[in-house]
Structure to design on (70 residues):
């Protein structure tokens, strides 16, 4: 469900020309941190701010499109 939410958010961001997506994950949430990294997010030092830049947004959208087509 989390992956689908990120994919949908990336789709909206890509359609609206957003430059990045930021969100947070608790520093003690190891499973959440691993999930966000698998999605392509880069952990920002000190605050664990997760971000998908335009390339990352495009990659999530492309990956989701391939999965939906299969």
């Amino acid at each position: 469900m989390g992956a689908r939410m990120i994919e949908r958010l990336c789709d909206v961001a890509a359609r609206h020309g957003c430059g990045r997506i930021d969100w947070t994950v608790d520093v003690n949430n190891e499973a959440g941190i691993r999930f966000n990294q698998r999605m392509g997010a880069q952990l920002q030092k000190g605050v664990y701010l997760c971000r998908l830049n335009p390339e990352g947004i495009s990659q999530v959208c492309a990956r989701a499109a391939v999965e939906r087509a299969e």
